[in-house]
Write a structure and sequence with these properties.
Shape: elongated
Distance between the termini: 37 Å
Number of strands: 11
Order of helices and strands: EEEEEEEEEEE
Largest sheet: 7 strands, mixed
Helix content: under 10%
Number of helices: 0
Structural class: mainly beta
Length: about 120
């Protein structure tokens, strides 16, 4: 089972980026998905989460600027980021609460993390 994040890059202040994160493998179901970020010298911050049914929650620091969404058919979560500030610069990591099956067919539930994608907001 893997989570593959993409979409990071360099953007000017006030700009926009959309991140995506796709879960792949022998997945039975994906429940809550989310994005966190880690800036140098700072603690990891939970940015946004979304339930399978689409209920979303956001950190106060991104409310009104970021939108989390998902495509359950593709096991993919997105993070639309608008009005970016330099302080949004960080490695963005996705995670998913999911159930997958082993080669023996045993269902396993776990929280899987992706590898992260760098977002840099700078002029």
């Amino acid at each position: 089972v893997q989570l593959q994040a993409s979409g990071g890059g360099l953007v000017q202040p006030g700009g926009s980026l959309t991140l995506s994160c796709a879960a792949s493998g022998s997945i039975v179901s994906v429940w809550a998905m989310g994005w966190s970020r880690q800036a140098p010298g700072k603690q990891r911050e939970l940015v946004a989460t979304i339930t399978r049914g689409g209920d979303a929650n956001y950190a106060d620091s991104v409310k009104g600027r970021f939108t989390i969404s998902r495509d359950n058919a593709k096991n993919t979560v997105y993070l639309q980021m608008n009005s970016l500030y330099p302080e949004d610069t960080a490695v963005y990591l996705c995670n998913a609460d999911l159930v997958y099956t082993t080669e023996e067919g045993t269902p396993i539930a776990l929280v899987k993390w992706g590898q992260g994608t760098q977002v840099t907001v700078s002029s």
